[in-house]
Write a structure and sequence with these properties.
By secondary structure, the protein is α/β, with parallel strands linked by helices. The protein is built from ten helices and 21 strands. It has a seven-stranded parallel β-sheet with strand order 13-14-12-15-17-18-19, sandwiched between helices. Strands 3-5-10-7-8 form a five-stranded mixed β-sheet, with no helix packed on it. A four-stranded antiparallel β-sheet has the order 4-11-6-9, with no helix packed on it. Helix 5 packs parallel to helix 9 (485-502) and helix 6 runs parallel beside helix 7.
């Protein structure tokens, strides 16, 4: 399993019609290559050059990735047709054919392959599947306004899928088109609607929004801490997880080390350098492995990419530094970390493009973290749903758990691109095997990030946390706002650090059970 980050950042690319960062012409070879890569879980645009155009950011302040009229749909993806629409009912399968592409005029009133969705009740989970021999593309539209609500690109093959929950008062239309110009052919369009059972585990957001105040108070056997006054501004995400209420009780993560296994960390950043883990058993720069752990002069962590003692963040988007700031950033920027009293252990496994080609590299970093005292391990990276986990990484995660370390993993951002029905790996693999906890992303208004992978049908340790327009540190003493499950995951890692600061005797199982039992589903909504 290879990897790139679970976030979205503004990189070298050209804007699309929706304010996203995406090339209108997909290179199939690039997409196939990227399907074999384990991916980082967050940024606000397109990933590093050479990596598939996988991560789609959102316009600032808008958690719906589609915000234009569908008359201005994505370039070269639809066929010209009449203004009439067909009907697709829940549980129905219909056959059609793309016969004529239109590569120029995007201002069409309608398309031949538009379907009005019928017989769907509010609250039902709806799954739309397209099967054809061409590279299909699906859009979910507001049938009244033409606004794009959701898109479906690829699954594990060329066939796209969309999954959403029907909202009261909404009328939906489905558009079938081609992801590339001049690609036509026959297709089968299927719909399925399911009424979720009320089991306490939601298909999209699992057990709900993590609540630091409830979790830490339960960890020490006290009544839930009263909410603190909101900090506001760039600290909205801290207010949302109720971190200030925990700080008011004197718990800031002190005494806890959090390993950030990522693209490295700018350990000289003014908001981070005071909170960087220091290997006191190692004499710096003497060329000797003083502590006998197999790593020479590993004073500040380790670079598993270049095999050096310099785990600096050289990623084009500063992914690891952004993650570290969310966990334990200091007040210099006006934006605190969730556990700003904790220490960050920088462990670099991702190269400058944000990629790694071997699970064994991540496994070695996990073992290093545990051997050197980390109680929390943040993995804001992962592969596509179903990509699996190599035996070395599974063994390392088991070792971490047996040693008392909690592994927190990003669920991934493939809901639209791959029509994801569950988290990517290692998040899903690890959580269902009780090796860690999986994290999805929401925004300031408690709406799910549209690309955040759903928790799925199988109950497992899954919570959500803020992951849209989250401001944090970047290399070079700067700051920016990123989207993605990469940003949600360190919020949960920070809450875990607060819990262990309050009660160091908690086991990983106890930590995770407290997190899911105190998570809050009230007010969470979907997009769509």
């Amino acid at each position: 399993m290879f990897t790139i980050p679970r976030s979205q950042a503004s990189l070298q690319s050209e804007p699309s019609l929706h304010g996203l960062v995406e090339s209108p012409f997909k290179s199939r070879s690039r997409f196939n290559e990227a399907r074999h890569a384990l991916r980082l879980r967050g940024r606000s645009g397109e990933p590093a050059v050479g990596i598939s155009s996988e991560f789609y950011g959102t316009p600032s302040g808008d958690e719906l990735s589609g915000s234009k009229s569908y008359a201005f749909g994505r370039a070269l993806r639809s066929v010209r047709g009449t203004i009439s629409r067909s009907v697709l009912r829940a549980g129905q399968s219909v056959k059609g054919a793309l016969s004529k592409t239109d590569g120029q005029d995007l201002n069409l009133a309608s398309y031949a392959d538009d379907y009005v969705l019928r017989s769907v009740r509010p609250g039902q989970r709806v799954e739309i599947n397209l099967k054809g021999k061409f590279d299909g593309y699906l859009q979910l539209l507001n049938a009244r306004t033409g606004r794009e609500l959701l898109y479906g690109d690829d699954t594990s093959n060329l066939n796209p899928r969309m999954v959403f929950t029907a909202q009261k008062g909404m009328k939906y239309a489905i558009r079938v088109s081609s992801a590339r110009p001049n690609k036509t052919g026959k297709y089968t369009l299927r719909s399925k609607a399911v009424t979720p059972s009320n089991t306490g585990f939601d298909f999209f957001y699992g057990y709900g929004l993590v609540d630091a105040a409830a979790a830490v108070s339960q960890a020490i056997g006290q009544p839930r801490f009263a909410n603190a006054a909101p900090i506001g501004g760039d600290n909205w995400s801290l207010d949302l997880v109720n971190a200030p209420a925990v700080w008011a009780k004197g718990f800031t993560g002190q005494g806890v080390t959090v390993a950030v296994i990522d693209s490295g960390v700018d350990y000289n950043h003014p908001d981070l350098f005071g909170n960087i883990w220091n290997n006191s058993r190692e004499i710096p720069n003497n060329g000797i492995d003083d502590d006998g752990n197999g790593y020479i002069d590993d004073r500040l962590g380790w670079n598993f990419v270049n095999h050096t003692n310099q785990p600096a963040d050289d990623a084009i988007d500063g992914h690891g530094t952004h993650v570290a700031g969310i966990i334990a950033g200091q007040v210099g920027s006006g934006k605190l970390g969730v556990a700003h009293g904790a220490k960050i252990m920088p462990l670099k496994v991702l190269d400058a493009r944000g990629a790694v080609n071997d699970d064994a590299v991540i496994a070695r970093a996990v073992r290093y973290a545990v051997d050197n005292g980390a109680r929390v391990i943040n993995l804001s990276l992962g592969g596509d749903p179903g990509s699996g986990v190599a035996p070395e990484l599974e063994a390392a995660m088991s070792f971490a758990r047996d040693s008392g370390a909690v592994v927190v993993m990003a669920s991934g951002n493939e809901r639209q691109r791959l029509g994801a029905l569950k988290p990517g790996d290692p998040a899903f693999f690890g959580a269902v095997r009780n090796l860690g906890i999986s994290v999805g992303a929401i925004g300031a208004n408690r709406r799910m990030y549209i690309d955040s992978n759903p928790s799925g049908n199988t109950p497992h340790r899954f919570v959500v946390a803020p992951g849209i327009q989250v401001r944090s540190t970047l290399p070079g003493a700067i700051y920016d706002r990123y989207d993605g499950t990469s940003m949600a995951t360190p919020h949960v890692a920070g809450v875990v650090a607060l819990m262990l600061s309050a009660n160091p005797n908690l086991t990983p199982t106890q930590v995770e059970e407290i997190l899911i039992s105190t998570a809050d589903r009230q007010g969470l909504t979907l997009a769509p």
